């Protein structure tokens, strides 16, 4: 699956996409693949504050429960209610309808410290050679 | 004559329906004597809101039907009494029958916790002796037997750490946890109000001591270490790790879940550990089944002793034992009465039956794990090559090339008559296969297991479909785990509502 060029990526495999004053956050295709079938997601309510690098929710797959870390600080405007009944969207469409939360960023400049798509692709490529070494 | 013959249910090979499906109106498994007091109106006594007309779908069955239903279900279980149970990290060892004999002795089985202490001296003595044995085994100064399980022991341990540091003026903020620790450790630290910081293992699967040195600051309350780690590897630099922590006023907590690799050989207390829990249901052979109960005693050094949960077992004049209910600095009670007493009795029976022989149990457990490792190395990939202790962790890397995963191999093991090993844990090994035979298995049983694993490896290479679709010999085939988690059916509902069916 292609990594959208206009998204930014974290080392913990979250993506963030900015559209005007709001940003959308989700987990990457690589992350969903590593997790396996997602069965449950726990997300913050609107109004919750995200702190950069801190956990703001969990994704539970048949293998494990994993924390999701905030790529940037902000306030939650909306969380993806559809995932409560169809968590599989994270597996089938991680970069679009499988989004997790929409936030109002505190400081959009924070995104400059994140990876762009080619850098992230290089990062996960290095990870998979490390794993098979 | 196309009519299908209806056979009696042979529970050894056929599926058993739900008890609700066996129901037919008017049957019952009890007979009450006629009412010999004036009838009371429940609606009046409890309030109209609490009275309901009936229970939809409540099963109506005869006594023998109830009995057969549950007896059949009971035979479906796989147990250590049926065969090898190499579920890594769980230490599924034999539960000696002598434990059960002792726990059922009249003077023990019929005791009541509200009995006056003068009449409970025997039970208190059992607890005292167990305390002494466990202190000797762990090399610690004080112990509480109250916690009901391993995770409960961890929780108690972290509460002790917090109480100790608070008394010194600052409970601190962080608990460090290596990525090779037990999965419950981070959860415990968070519930105890600490922030968790992970430490990545170095390339051999050991704690990165240099990194640890950087991470231990005045903000760190403790390091929670599992030793041997979940990789089945002994942390060789543990005294140095303890020194690093102590120099900064932090404590070293050891998860004792893997104590089956150390008992009688080395003592965590001598290695610089400040406190630890033991899983009596693992190392000390008490049953795991049916949700326990377990027991997770916490042993500690003197500095933590004032904070021990109450009541404290103390020796009075003339050797009389008493439970002291009040201690000014105690974290309080963590469990009703004296913990799961029946489990404590069984653990003591095990320790006394072995005596100094517990050391051989440990050595045999390590030997069995290494025997299996030696025979399966190369057949399955061994991601970490340091010596194994009581368990060995392989990965599915070789089989994965054919699309066969650790889960598939585990399911296939069921067809060979074994309980699966632990799959996909520890998380630092992709496709982990964690095997712990324990000392209970003979060489012959280990050989059977090795043969099964070798045979499955051949299947994975030549006919992978057989492995990927296993199990094939069970009453139900591969279950839809994803579907069960995503769309769980939590309650049975009658196909046709009873009231309509009756019309």
Structure summarized in a few sentences:
Chain A contains three helices and nine strands. Chain A is α+β, with helices and mostly antiparallel strands.
Order of helices and strands of chain B: HHHHHEHEHEHEHEEHEEEHHEHHEEHHHH
Q: Please give the CATH class of chain A.
A: Mainly Beta
Low-confidence stretches of chain A: none
Helix proportion range of chain B: 25-40%
Number of domains of chain A: 1
Query: In total, how many beta strands of chain A?
Result: 9
Shape assignment of chain A: globular
Order of helices and strands of chain A: EEEHEEEEEHEH
**For this structure, what is the CATH class of the largest domain in chain B?**
Alpha Beta
Features:
heterodimer, A: 133 residues, alpha+beta, OB fold (Dihydrolipoamide Acetyltransferase, E2P), 6-stranded antiparallel sheet, 3-stranded antiparallel sheet, 3 helices, 9 strands, 33% strand, globular, B: 503 residues, alpha/beta, Aspartate Aminotransferase, domain 2, Aspartate Aminotransferase, domain 1, 2 domains, 7-stranded mixed sheet, 18 helices
Q: What topology does this entry show?
A:
The complex is a heterodimer of chains A (133) and B (503).
Chain A: E1 8-9, E2 14-19, E3 22-27, H1 29-35, E4 38-42, E5 49-50, E6 55-61, E7 65-69, E8 74-79, H2 89-92, E9 101-105, H3 117-132
Chain B: H1 42-46, H2 63-74, H3 97-103, H4 106-109, H5 121-138, E1 142-144, H6 150-167, E2 174-178, H7 184-191, E3 195-199, H8 209-215, E4 220-226, H9 238-247, E5 251-256, E6 275-278, H10 280-283, E7 298-300, E8 312-315, E9 321-324, H11 341-354, H12 358-376, E10 392-395, H13 397-400, H14 406-415, E11 422-423, E12 432-435, H15 443-462, H16 464-468, H17 481-486, H18 498-502
Parallel strand pairs in B: 2-3, 2-4, 4-5, 5-6
Antiparallel strand pairs in B: 1-7, 6-7, 8-9, 10-12, 11-12
């Amino acid at each position: 699956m292609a990594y959208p060029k206009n998204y930014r990526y974290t080392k913990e495999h979250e993506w963030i996409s900015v559209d005007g004053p709001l940003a959308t956050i989700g987990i990457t295709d690589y992350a969903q693949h590593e997790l396996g079938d997602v069965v449950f997601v726990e997300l913050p309510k609107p109004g919750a504050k995200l702190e950069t690098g801190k956990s703001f929710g969990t994704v539970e797959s048949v293998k494990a429960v994993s924390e999701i870390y905030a790529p940037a600080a902000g306030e939650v405007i909306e969380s993806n209610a559809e995932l409560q009944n169809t968590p599989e969207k994270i597996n089938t469409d991680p970069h679009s309808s499988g989004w997790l939360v929409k936030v109002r960023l505190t400081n959009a400049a924070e995104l400059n410290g994140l990876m762009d798509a080619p850098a992230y692709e290089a990062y996960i490529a290095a990870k998979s050679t490390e794993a098979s070494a | 004559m196309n009519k299908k013959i209806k056979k009696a249910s042979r529970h050894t090979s056929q599926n058993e329906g739900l008890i609700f499906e066996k129901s037919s109106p008017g049957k019952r498994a009890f007979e009450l004597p006629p009412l010999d007091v004036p009838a009371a109106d429940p609606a009046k006594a409890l309030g109209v809101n609490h009275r309901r007309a009936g229970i939809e779908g409540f099963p109506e069955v005869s006594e023998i039907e109830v009995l057969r239903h549950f007896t059949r279900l009971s035979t479906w279980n796989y147990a250590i009494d049926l065969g090898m149970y190499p579920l890594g990290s769980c230490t599924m060892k034999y539960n000696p029958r002598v434990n059960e004999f002792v726990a059922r002795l009249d003077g023990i089985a019929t005791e009541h916790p509200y009995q006056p202490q003068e009449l409970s001296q025997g039970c208190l003595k059992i607890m005292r002796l167990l305390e002494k044995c466990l202190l000797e085994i762990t090399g610690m100064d004080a112990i509480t037997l109250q916690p009901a399980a391993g995770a409960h022991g961890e929780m108690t341990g972290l509460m002790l750490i917090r109480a100790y540091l608070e008394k010194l003026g600052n409970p601190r903020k962080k608990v460090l946890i290596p990525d090779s620790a037990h999965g419950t450790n981070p959860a415990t630290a968070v519930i105890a109000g600490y922030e968790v910081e992970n430490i990545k293992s170095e390339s051999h699967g050991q704690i990165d001591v240099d990194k640890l040195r950087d991470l231990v600051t005045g903000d760190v309350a403790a390091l929670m270490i599992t030793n041997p780690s979940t990789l089945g590897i002994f942390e060789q630099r543990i005294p140095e790790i303890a020194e690093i922590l102590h120099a900064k006023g932090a404590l070293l907590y050891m998860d004792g879940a893997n104590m089956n690799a150390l008992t009688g050989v080395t003592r965590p207390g001598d290695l610089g550990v400040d406190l630890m829990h033991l899983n009596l249901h693992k190392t000390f052979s008490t049953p795991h089944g049916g949700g326990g109960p377990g027991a997770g005693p916490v042993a500690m050094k003197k500095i933590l002793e004032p904070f021990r949960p109450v009541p404290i077992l103390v020796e009075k004049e003339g050797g009389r034992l008493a439970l002291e209910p009040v201690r000014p600095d105690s974290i309080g009670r963590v469990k009703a009465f004296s913990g799961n007493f029946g489990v404590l009795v069984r653990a003591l029976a095990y320790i006394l039956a072995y005596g100094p022989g517990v050391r051989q149990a440990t050595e045999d457990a390590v030997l069995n794990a290494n025997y299996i490792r030696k025979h399966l190395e190369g057949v399955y990939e061994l991601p970490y090559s340091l010596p194994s202790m009581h368990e060995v962790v392989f990965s599915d890397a070789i089989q994965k090339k054919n699309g066969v995963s650790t889960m598939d191999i585990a399911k296939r093991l069921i067809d060979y008559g074994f309980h699966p090993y632990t799959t996909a844990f520890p998380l630092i090994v992709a496709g982990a296969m964690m095997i712990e035979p324990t000392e209970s298995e003979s060489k012959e049983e280990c050989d059977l297991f090795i043969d099964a694993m070798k045979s499955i490896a051949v299947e994975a290479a030549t006919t992978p479909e057989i492995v990927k679709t296993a199990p094939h010999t069970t009453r139900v085939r591969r279950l839809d785990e994803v579907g069960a988690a995503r769309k769980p059916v939590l309650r049975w509902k009658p196909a046709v509502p009873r009231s309509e069916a009756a019309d």
